[in-house]
Amino acid sequence: MGDIAARPSSIEGVGIFAVRAFRVGDRITPVHIVREITPEAPIREDLGERIDHCAYPDGKVVLIAFPERHVNHSCDPNAFEYFEGHTSYLVARRHISVDEEITIDYNINISNGSTWPCHCRAKRCGGQVVGDFFRLPVERQREYRPLLAEWFIHRHRRRVEALDSSRESRGAPP
Predict the structure, then answer these.
(1) Of 107, 113, 89, which is closest to residue 22 (Cα–Cα)?
(2) Which of 159, 157, 126, 119 lies closest to 140, judged by CA?
(3) Nearest-10 Cα torsion for 170, 91, 134, 114
(4) What is the 3-state secondary structure (H, E, C) of 51-108?
(5) What domains lie within the chain, and their CATH numbers?
(6) How much is the pTM?
(7) What is the reported pLDDT for 171?
(8) Lowest-pLDDT choice from 8-22, 43-57, 88-102, 141-155
(9) What would the pLDDT profile of 58-89 be if each residue is shown by its tens digit?
(10) Which of 35, 45, 83, 145 shows a CA-CA span of 20 to 30 A to 64?
């Protein structure tokens, strides 16, 4: 597994943990994709595939490989998913210590998703994963704005421009 290991998590089920320390901006691991989920190739529960092991980049549904599929949500994550072409990586948002659980905010780069209870226990936890970037508090949207994937910005251009305009009207840098 290299720099990460999957093991039981206090957040939810299994999580991924740092085997070594990471600095801000370090690429932690590529996010490996098993395959795209389509009507012709649906989730195969009989093979242990689960919809909660999927991601939704640029209008697709993809099954994430082990161990990356076990990255848990946090309302104050220490990492984010960075998209570079057709590849994505987990990248450190802040220093991550050895044995620390690596987390992302599932609300980045998603819209019109479902809501479910959050168990992250971060100080700023809102109690639920809202499944939509634009349903996050505006302050959080502004914080996460630099983390948005180009495909997400393109797909939601008007909403992102409105966020950028509200930021500029407050005198904040774009």
Answers:
(1) 89
(2) 126
(3) -160
(4) HHHEECHHHCCEEECCCHHHCEECCCCCEEEEEECCEEEEEECCCECCCCEEEECCCC
(5) 4-169 (2.170.270.10)
(6) 0.89
(7) 56
(8) 43-57
(9) 888 888 999 999 999 999 999 999 999 889 99
(10) 145
Find out whether 32 and 16 touch, Cβ atoms under 8 Å: no
Provide the token pair at 22: 């990471």
For residue 96, pLDDT over 80 is answered with yes
Sheet holding 54-55, edge to edge: 33-36, 62-64, 54-55
pLDDT of res. 169: 56
Cα distance between residue 68 and residue 30, in whole Å: 8
Q: What is the distance between the alpha carbons of residues 32 and 133, in angstroms, rounded to a whole number?
A: 23
Q: Tokens 């914080």 — which residue?
A: 143
Do the beta carbons of residue 59 and residue 38 sit within 8 Å? no
